[in-house]
Input
Amino acid sequence: MKKANYIKLFLKDKMVAAVVPTSSFGVKKLCRAIDFKKDIVIVEYGPGSGVFTKYLLHNMNAESRIIAIESNSNFVNILKEIKDSRLLVFNDKVQNLNEILEKLDKPAIDYIISGIPFSYIKEDLKMRIIKNTYESLAKGGKFLVYQYSNHIKKYLSKYFQSINSTFEILNIPTLFIFEAVKDPTLDK
Output
């Protein structure tokens, strides 16, 4: 997607988090937390034009799956151009994760990746998204979040006991990356 088109979408849709896609540096740094050797199921919140999606597809095995949830129909059309049976694209909102997973017979989710702009989302909806995320993850599953500020950490800590954070300065603007792990010893 051309930068000018990306900027237009950013100006039209407040849920488009950036004027340009995440850099390859940011993508690779976040994806270090993923074990690509295993059969995995990944949910991607707000994949945009698919920079993470393409990287994930390139690195994961033939039995793995991506469930991409994108609310912007322009991005959905771009994602649907990716011809790969491991990718399922839903034109929906991330707060509808439970309904989407029900349609798919509730697969165990190993990773959820999110670049949605949590700083723009009202607190009650933000907490609902994080709660749904936590509940949808398998034990030991990871919520991998990339943002342009670090405000999300205090919200993640309401559900996740283990949160690692780092940043990628080679991304413009600097990218804050959070790895929140669901406790593998809990029953839920």
User: Anything to note?
Assistant: The chain has one domain: 3-181.
